[in-house]
From TrEMBL, chains A, B, C:
Entry similarity comment: Belongs to the UPF0126 family.
Localization of this protein: Cell membrane
Metal-binding recorded as keyword: no
Topology versus the membrane: Multi-pass membrane protein
Transmembrane segments: 6-24, 36-55, 67-88, 100-120, 126-147, 159-177, 183-202
Keywords: Cell membrane, Membrane, Transmembrane, Transmembrane helix
Domain Glycine transporter: 14-88, 102-176
Protein name (Swiss-Prot/TrEMBL): Membrane protein YeiH
Amino acid sequence: MQNVQFWGETLRLVVEIAATVAFAMSGVMEAARKKLDAVGVCVVGFLAAFGGGTLRDLLLDQRPFFWVRHVEMLWGVLALCLLAMAFMRGRHFAPTAKAIQWPDALGLGLFAATGVHQALLLELPALVAVLMGLITGVFGGVLRDVVCNEIPTAFHDHRPYAVCAFAGGWIYVGLWHMGAPGWLALVACVVVTAGLRGLALWRNWQLPAWRT
Amino acid sequence: MQNVQFWGETLRLVVEIAATVAFAMSGVMEAARKKLDAVGVCVVGFLAAFGGGTLRDLLLDQRPFFWVRHVEMLWGVLALCLLAMAFMRGRHFAPTAKAIQWPDALGLGLFAATGVHQALLLELPALVAVLMGLITGVFGGVLRDVVCNEIPTAFHDHRPYAVCAFAGGWIYVGLWHMGAPGWLALVACVVVTAGLRGLALWRNWQLPAWRT
Amino acid sequence: MQNVQFWGETLRLVVEIAATVAFAMSGVMEAARKKLDAVGVCVVGFLAAFGGGTLRDLLLDQRPFFWVRHVEMLWGVLALCLLAMAFMRGRHFAPTAKAIQWPDALGLGLFAATGVHQALLLELPALVAVLMGLITGVFGGVLRDVVCNEIPTAFHDHRPYAVCAFAGGWIYVGLWHMGAPGWLALVACVVVTAGLRGLALWRNWQLPAWRT
């Protein structure tokens, strides 16, 4: 039993680090495309990696922020941004963007789950909890795109992203209200969110568009 | 007397719902113009409807947010966005934009009044209370425009919008400090704000521009 | 001794007012370039002057905001914006932009120092304190540029700005942890930040760019 918990914790840590790296890299690459300077690359990397969780904590009035409790994550993302500036070149962008799709999908699931989890602990209504999950998963990318003066990708590329987190969030809330154990709700939320996102990428699903 | 209060409450509820619908529709139409997908349409609708009040509560450190206390408003706006996607077409845009000007003006007045009211309850200085009213009424639209990668309409279309809320806010503060009953200050603020906005639309008033 | 403290307080007040004026003017001029109306000019001036400090207080959960405690600063910036609209013309822009570089550099240092100071009082980790200083000094300008639909200057003009505040922040944290008196740490932070910024302007230093 101890062992299971240990492996669970380790697995979660690995997923969390992979997801944060994927989110930060998405910011670094967008900043590079926009020809920002070294400061801009780091700031946009930070916004993409930590923006969603920070907005969640701000809305839920939770302090200290998770990056204050785990300040080593700030150092890690700072190092990642500087290393990317030193070693990454334009020709690495397309393969990197392809490679980070999978940890990014996992991160979407994991971040959404943490948002739903915290909102449920505060006894917020079901829809609010699901929206908190969606905000945690999606708004890092939204802040990244707003600062880079783009319409957020999550809102106009017609591939399901936020809706996966929305669906996964309802799974979490459903299991929670049925009295399922916490780890099961968390795992189910991550699996459903990341699975839907993976299917959407693989089958090239499209969101309904406005019919003018 | 009971009756007066009942009708007052009902009237306020009707105005509030009409205003929220008007604000959400302004977001839905801007999102459609920018060709956002279904997620984008809903998010921009939510930002326009709830952004200003949420920013007010965040700045004043008020929890729970009003949309946590009235979660049925979230469901309503979600349904509104999805219905708009299903039934609204490009040719409906111009008449809708014209029709929502009036509930929008009422909403500006009502939202500004709630902002001033909350700030006065917290005993904040007069100018701060007026600014909180302005932020509540105006920043939903600002967030909508920023996410859609536009300069906020409220800041560059040269028709008085925020200044109406500014004027109405001072009426509220003035009546409050003269010891007038709360409902009178609220009604006066809404009437002055919405009235000035209506006059500005009708007489086509222009704000002073920068003379280069 | 009394005298020294008096002159210290007075000096700080003078620097603070000069810096706030410089920050507000940067907002006013950007709003004018974007042809915003009177409301837009005032809002962007306010965002540039008060945005960074407000974001700091929001993240650190400090209330009341500094502009609630010093409401005369709100009145001052409002008057400044209106006076600029009345008397400033296009031909004043280039000399004003040049003239405000120096109070702006001082303001960057002073605002960064207040951010670091507050974070250290809350016993936050060193890197978080330095980032709070950076956010306080830089994000007023970031909000100004985002609302004006530009990529923030601080992130893409390749002249050191935020990195000066970053360096100055570490000086503050270093002296604080060595037990130096508070005023010394503050002065050192301001001198290092403003000095580096001044050198960067004078010698035309460039930040490393992305090599594609």
